[in-house]
Each structure stands twice: as structure tokens, then as C-alpha cells.
Amino acid sequence: MKRSGLLLLLAFVMLAVQCSCRGKTSSAQTDPTITAYDVERDWTNPDRLIPLNFEQSQGKRVFYEKCVWCHAEATPAGPSNRSNVSPTPSLINDGSILNPLSDEFLRNIITLGGSAMGKSAMMPPWGRTLSQEEIRAVIAYTRAVAQPPYHPPARPASQYSVKQTSKEEGSTK
Amino acid sequence: MNYEEMGKPSKGLRLAFAITSVLFLVVLAISPLKDLLQQWKRYKKEFVHFAQTRPDTKRLLADFHSGIDQIWIPNLNVVDRCSTCHLGITQPSLLDSSVPEPFRGHPTIPHRAKEWGCVVCHRGQGLATEVKEAHQTTLAWEQPLLPVGYIQASCGVCHRSEIPDTPKLNRGRELLEDLNCVGCHRLQGIERPAMIGPDLTEVGNKVSREWVYKWLKEPRTITDSNGNVVVNGYENEEEPRMPQFRLNEQELRALSGYLSSLKSKPLEPYKFDARVIAAWEKKADLAQQGEVRFRQMFCVTCHSLAVTRAGETKLIGGDIGPELSKVGSKVNGDWLIAWLRNPGEYLPHALMPQYQWTDEDLFKVTRYIQSNLTDPDLLSNLPSLGPPRPDEIQLGQRLFLEKGCASCHAIKGVKSPSDFGPDLSQLGSKTVSQLLFGEARIPHTLVAYIRAKIADPVSVNPAARMPQYHLKPEDLEALTAALLSMTGQPATAAYAQLVVPAPQARFRPAGKFGEVYERYKCYVCHRFNGFGGTLAPDLSFEGSRAQRPWLIAFLRNPQTLRPALTSRMPQFGMTEEEAAILADYLGMVTQSPSVNPDSVSPKEFTPEMANLGKQLYEVKYQCQSCHTIGATGGYVGPNLNNVGNWMNAAWITAWLKNPQALVPDTIEPRRDFTDEEIKSLTAYLTTLRQNPHIPAPRGTVGTPGGSR
């Protein structure tokens, strides 16, 4: 009886091993050109590619159509208009200026323009040109390319999920 | 041995029986155990635990049930069980990247998973309930998950016309067209264009045998000081359209011999008056003058030149025509003059406009090209070739067909082969067992196969005829995505209704306008009702926008309107009559339905209104952030110094109301102006005029807007 019990145990162990082996998928690929919907080159480090999801990619498109002229050092057409505008607009990846601003503030200043938010009237309102989705996408893109990187403000929900992450990962893999 | 003893099984037998019964029980137990331990059940349980740690537990568990979840969309042939494990994909509160997979929410996309399923975009096996079978290729299931980097290929399965949401796919499709992949392969949704390479019927008049030899060997011409190829011979930072063929010495000799022998009619040199030339040549700076003219004409709008700054060679200029840094050492001087005078005579489908040259300008520019745009070392390091032998010509003629040259280049009398390469219109739906990987050491997946094939065709099939393209990594990915979208006919009838066909626009007007339009190739840069290039402004509604006298003056001598753009309208040397034909046609035909010329009468405008408009422009709306008036202002919008002569008041009014209604992709934002403000701004802008003495065309004198 002892032996058969041992056999049974062995069978269970093998089964368990087999199951846990199947759970593992192939090693994660890290090249963002293959793993992300779209990429953007980090302006401060040309070797680094920033992965973008669908929404951020749409923001990138809108940015390069409408915003790049004043919020970048170089534009698709060549020279930037940034130096002609005063006060000088901030670069879209300038996290030191844009990170402290809330999504809501950015949404308002893009929608209503600078003068409505007590800033320069040189920033025009885009609320009648861009859709709400497009404005959200531009903000998502801004957050993705920010240098220093942007961290969303902590809320109770995300605090909790951060605490849980390590445990969950340990149990699924 | 008695009966009793016979009935009693021996000890060994009993033990064997015991073991086999236990084994039998174990085997019997495996099936229910396996079912009990299925991966998806574990994920289900984990999700319940996980949901209880979230603040919105109730909502997360509202749709939860313990069985297999399935999205079934019979119309699309979709049976997806992915949401069995990916339990959070429809939960917006689980979008955070800290949420562990497989429970993370799906990022925002234009389609909802409930309506489309998952496999339509991600591929993989929707029916499978095991991780490996659902995501990867196994023996029984052949369709692996598409890496997210290529997911845009799935958009292209239905969206055959271009949509703005898919940058990688759009780039890939552009490359498929630009590189003329349809020259050899059949591809869905891409029409075969006119022959993409130059017609070679008379190429022997244009270039020497040595140059052909060098070009075939390495179709890139620009090297840095160390001899490394830094930029190629065609486009700025991009691949020359001519790929590199794998040719041996004998083949190079044969092809160069054959091509250089192609001159059916001898080139007749254009005769300048010898005495005039002698007078011109007394000027020492002839080439410099030619350079000035070359720059004035804005040849660099379409052609690029290599510029070396601080040891780094860069191409500056446009990419519509070939790069010209060494063209003086490439082409025959007599051919160059004939080409510049009338490109259409040598190459009927040339994109190069026919400039109206004076003999002096033509001579100077040719001199500049031949003395400055040269490279004395271009044809050094070549074996001595001499005139081609008849056997070389014969072999070259055969190779021209065998190597697929005739797919891109026409030679009169040589038939171009159809379907020279394999049909690729269903490549994207091929399963791994349908692909031949040969000796290639790559993962056995469709994506890896396509990438390897494009990156190095012989790595997969040593006998491949496909030439070598040197693509940038991102272009390689884009091409792969575009090829993955080629899945042939839609899988079900429901798909067929969803497929959006690519639009086919044509604008080839006839008559006098058509002739001038064709001579100056307006459509290479400008767009008319969806047909034409995108380099320059869309002219679909130019008749509503511009005043006739301004248009004529501009066509004859284009000024800079948009200071931020580096490419400018060339100076064609148009005659007054031609400019008038263009202006009349544009004024009559290219009218926008949103602009009513009679809605605004400039006579109503008073100086007070103009003053108010100036205040609005400068203070309230600060338009100078993008527009220049005088010497100050921004580069983004056009220069407004002459807008009173340039634009119709009705256009300005309509534009201020809603710019996107007139030019959908314009940068200018739509503002909240009141009607009063629009009137004042229009009044101000119409007062902005420069050099009022615009030369009126002979015969038909039009007052602004009067001819329409």
C-alpha cells in the first residue's frame, strides 16, 4: 500500500509540474516596435523608443498636425515657430512644466485656449477643431513622452493595486 | 496443488492486481482532475480574489460567471473565448498597467470587443481554452497571436482605403507602391502604376556603359570621406527605388553592354549660336550664375543635393526627383540639354515639368550642373569595359528579362512579364505549414518569415530572384505589417460588406488647361479633388480663394507665402497666356460650395471696421503667433502682407467662420468669432496690400473677382 501511495503522489506531482509548465509563455519581447502599437523617439535620447498605445498614437498624429509648430524645436516642415511666440511655449515633452498640471487643466487650456485660462492668448482654442477624443489623445501622448517621466497622481484604487501587484504576479506565473 | 490452492492467487499476482487497480483508478482520475485543474478555471478563481481587492468589486463581479465565456458573432465568423481568462478587458477601471495580466482592461480603441471579438484584430485561436493553444502556434492550431506591433495589419484587412489611425500600415502601403512591389508581385488593392523606373529605350544616349556597370553593382552614389555609403542615391535617408541585384562580373558586363547599346535614334544636340556662346563664356562666373538660376528656380523642391557639413554628408532637398549631387558625371551633356528642354520627349511619363527656358539660362544651368555637380572619382575603380561585344549584348538582353528588370523598366519592343514574382495577395492569411523556411534560422512564424524575406531574400530561399532592398528598420516593420494585411478575399460575406475600397481619383482635364496642366505637371505637388501630390496646397477650391490678377502674377513669379516651408513653387518661366489659361480655369471650375462670392461686398467695409479688426488681430486673438504682417509674426500660417490682393473677401469671411469646411486638414483652428468680429477682421485683412501695380494680362483685363 505504501508503494502505491507513493505512485499516486508521483502522478500528482507530475501532473502539477506539467500544468505549471504550460502556464509559462515565451519570454517577453522588449523591442517596442514589435510589442507596441506605435513608437515615438525620445527627444532627449534618440536611441530610446517610447512605446505608444492606440490612444497615445492618435495623440501623436494630432500633435504632429496641429501642435508641433509651436511646441517642438523642429517641425516636419523644418524650422519651428516657437521662437516667434512670446512667452515661449513649453516643449510637449517638458515634464518639469507639464507633469504638475492636471489632465483637466490641460484639457481646458487645449479646448478653450490660453486666454480663457489666464495664460497667453497666443495659444488658440481647439475645442471646435479637435474632438474630445482627440484632445484626450493629445494629453495621453503628452504624458507618454514626458521627460522626466509622468506618474499619474496616486488615488486609493491605484495604491491598492500597486500593493497587490507583487502577490498576484507571484501566483499567476 | 489442490483446488483451494489453485483458487487462491499467488502473492505476486495479488500485488500486481493491486497495483494495476490503483493505476487504473489514477488513470481514470486524470481526466476529471485535468478538467478541475484547467488553466482557465484557475484564472477564474484568481479573478474573484483579485476583484475583491479592488474598490469596485461589485461591478467587476456583476458579469462574472464561472463557466467558459464566449463572444459569438455569427456574421463575422467569430467565436472567441478569450474573455474566459481576460476577464477585465471591458472594465475601464482595470486599464492601469499595475493590474496583472490576464485581467488588465483593453486600452481604448475605436471598436468594442463585444461587437468584434478579439481574434479579428489579434488573430490566434478564439476557440482554444489553453494559453498555449490560444496564443501560439501548436501542431493542431496554426494561427499564432499577432504581435501588437503588427496589429495595424488587421485594420488593413477591412480598411482598404487609408485611415489616419494606422500610421505603420499607411507607411507600409506607401512603400509597397513606391518600391513598385506590384511590378513583380500581385497585391490586393494596389494598382499597377506606370513603369516606375525610367524608360530605357534610349538609355545609351543618356549614360555610359561604365556608369550602368557601377549603378547595377551598387545603386547608391553618395559616400562619406571614408568611402562608406552614408546616404543613398535616391531619397533623403530612404532607400533608392532601384534595389541591389546580385549580379556576377559576367552579368554586369553583359547588362551594361546591352543597355549602353540602346540608342535607336542618335541624339541631336541642341544648337546654341556659337557666337552667343563665345560671348557668354567671356563671363568668368558662368557656373556661379547657373547656380543662382538653379536656386531661383527651386529645383531643390523636387531634387536633393548632398551637402557636407562638419564631416557629415546629408541630402538637402525634395524627394520627388532623383538626387543630383553627381549627375554632371553621370549623364551625357547633349542629353541633359535635350532633357531640360522637354523631359516628355525622352520619357513620356516623366514627372519633371517642361520649363520655359531662355537659351542663356539653359546654357548656364547646364554648365553649372556639368562643372559643379560632379564627382571625378565616380567611375574610377572600374575595369576597362570598352565597347560591348555582340555576345555580351545578347546575354544582356536575356538577363534583362530573366532578372526581372522589365518589371520596372520599359524598353520599346521588350514585353514586360506579368506575375514575375509569387502572388502575395493572400500572404497574410498563410499558415505556417504553407511556408518554406529552408535553412533560415528564424522562428517558424509568418511574421518572421515575411521579415526575413524582405530583409534578405536569399536567407530563406538561396535561389530567390528578388533583389536586395536596404530598408530602415521601421520601414521593414511597416512593410511587414502591410503584407500581413493582404489576406485576399474577406473570410465571410459579412466582411465583404465592411471592406472599404481604396478611392480612385483622377483629374486629367482636357483642352487648353489640360495642356498647360500637363506641361507644368501641377498634379505632382498640388491636389485637385483628391488627386495629386500633397507637397503643396490643395487647389480644389483655389478659384474661390484667389483673385485672378494675383493668381496670374503668382504663377509667373511665385513669391514666398508660407515661410516655414523649405520647398517652394518653382519658377517655370510661364508665359502670360499660359498663366491666364490656368487662372481662368481655376476661377471657373475650382469653386467651393461653401463660399458665395456675393455674400460679402467689400464696399461696406469702413476704416472703423478695419481698425477694430486690427485690434482683434493684434490684441484679442493674437493672430501674429502664426501669421506674419510686416516683418513680425509667426511662420505657421501664410504671410498676410498681400492678402488684400491675394484672397477674395468672401473666402476670408468663410474661412474665418470655419476653416475646416474649406480645407479639412488645415492647421488653423476654428474660432468662436462673432459675425461682427468676422466682418471687422475681413475688413482689416482686405486693406493689406503690397505693390498694387500688378501687371494686368493682355486682352482680358479682370477686376478682382470680376471675371467669375
What would your notes on this structure say?
- The complex is a heterodimer of chains A (173) and B (708).
- Residues 15-28 and 156-173 of chain A have low confidence and may be disordered.
- Chain A has a domain at 32-144: Cytochrome c-like domain (Cytochrome Bc1 Complex, Chain D, domain 2, Orthogonal Bundle).
- Chain A is built from 7 helices and 4 strands; from the N terminus they run H-H-E-E-H-E-E-H-H-H-H.
- In chain A, a hairpin with a 2-residue loop joins strand 3 (74-75) and strand 4.
- Chain A is mainly alpha-helical and 173 residues long.
- Chain A has a two-stranded antiparallel ribbon.
- Chain B has 33 helices and 10 strands.
- In chain B, a hairpin with a 4-residue loop joins strand 1 and strand 2.
- In chain B, helix 27 packs across helix 28.
- In chain B, strands 1-2 form a two-stranded antiparallel sheet.
- Chain B has 708 residues and is mainly alpha-helical.
- The chains are: A mainly alpha (173), B mainly alpha (708).
Please outline the helices and strands.
The complex is a heterodimer of chains A (173) and B (708).
Chain A: H1 2-23, H2 32-35, E1 38-42, E2 45-52, H3 54-71, E3 74-75, E4 78-79, H4 95-98, H5 103-112, H6 132-145, H7 156-172
Helix pairs in contact in A: 3-6, 5-6
Chain B: H1 3-7, H2 11-36, H3 39-52, H4 57-62, E1 71-73, E2 78-80, H5 113-116, H6 119-122, H7 131-135, H8 152-158, H9 167-178, H10 203-206, H11 209-217, E3 222-223, E4 229-231, H12 249-260, H13 274-281, H14 286-296, E5 304-309, E6 312-317, H15 327-330, H16 333-341, H17 343-346, H18 359-372, H19 390-402, H20 446-455, H21 457-460, H22 473-484, H23 493-498, H24 511-519, H25 522-525, E7 527-528, E8 531-532, H26 542-545, H27 548-556, H28 576-589, H29 607-620, E9 628-629, E10 632-633, H30 643-646, H31 649-657, H32 659-662, H33 675-686
Antiparallel strand pairs in B: 1-2, 3-4, 5-6, 7-8, 9-10
Helix pairs in contact in B: 8-22, 9-22, 11-12, 12-19, 14-18, 16-18, 20-22, 24-28, 27-28, 29-33, 31-33
